[in-house]
Amino acid sequence: DRKAATEYLGTLRARRDIQCAALYTSSGQLFASYQRSEQNPCVFGAVQKAAALVENDELLVYHGVVERGERLGTVYLRASLDRTARVLRYAATVGAVLVGALLLGLFGSSLMRRSISQPLMEIAGVAQAVTQRRDYSLRAVKRGEDEIGQLTDAINQMLAQAERGAADLQRANERLLSEIEEHLRARDEVSALNATLEQRVAERTQQLEMSNKELQSFSYSVSHDLRTPLRAIEGFSSALLRNHASQLDTRGQDYLQRVRAATQRMSLLIDDLLSLARTARAEMKRREVDLSDLAQKSARELQEAHPERQVEFVIHPELKADADPQLMRVVLDNLLGNAAKFSGKKPDARVEFGHTLHNGSDTFFVRDNGVGFDMNYAGKLFGVFQRLHSSAEFEGTGIGLANVHRVIARHGGTIWADSEPGRGATFFFTLPATPPTGDVHAENHPAGRGQPR
Hints:
- By secondary structure, the protein is an alpha+beta fold.
- About 50% of the residues lie in helices and about 20% in strands.
């Protein structure tokens, strides 16, 4: 800081014998200066090597400033001497040289701090831009081969993988859409062609199912492969905070904490994506399941995981259904977890799991007295990455209800919701006793988009 260096040199005004002082950079450029009298201006010449000279009853001192073996600059002083006090003034001048060396050292330390904070700010800026614009072609600029450089490499590798994955996913979607269009054209031709075309339609349908399975496998693979760079980012961020926190100012440490928080959120998102993929791929094994017992287990785990939430769980007894127990645990974990999350801020929070009849059919429900939502947006409830509340209000990734919808659809059931802002929400679902023929795809099954069927 040139202004700060000039102010520090100005403190030499207390020494009447010091006429001039200057700080030079390592390249010999004048960085800051001081002179006692404007009437007798000083001429700052070229930097000399370390030396102490006496000319015309004046002491000229050039002293190098070195830190950790690296020359940061040179301090220059000119002081007047008389014959009786020359030795004492020389000693004082040496002390002033040391002060100047300390000032230059502080200046060098400030430059080193900026060399760490600036790259972290750039990394944080790239991460924020990627999050806001979903532009995975952005890259962080690498400034060196130190820990920050390795962190930059890890982030760039992650962005490169995400960019390739997004491009591959787009191409897969285009191929899938193209094949769907072909299938629709084939369906129109069936009415005009003979029965032999039915075999061709069956073959095309099989190809579409294979493409859908390949797309699911691809999503699972991409989510799984993203874990490696995330672990590297988390590891290097932790190392920086643990080993180099003293070299970072408050803002630098805050940016690094934001990087770690972003990696943790992305890790949670990857876990949910993997869970969504497993739900679609898992083999169903239906049998009689005690839903009340599963709900009790989910409630106990929620209370242990979030003891700060004072939520009363009311579980109706002896609620049973013909279903896959593992998949139904996914349903109850998500519905009860959401109910507890969105009502947990109320002092009298209450979550209920029970049974009712809807149009003569056995129907289960999860009800809470939380914040609720506007039914005008109910169509977004079961979509992937769809949220009716901001992440700043309530944590989450927007995948849980999509998972629930997929499980209910695979059972041949229906799910819908009813709510009012500020008065809680109720989620209803059915589980038919007769399993559907084949495996039902959640994307094509009318399991509910926020309205009862």
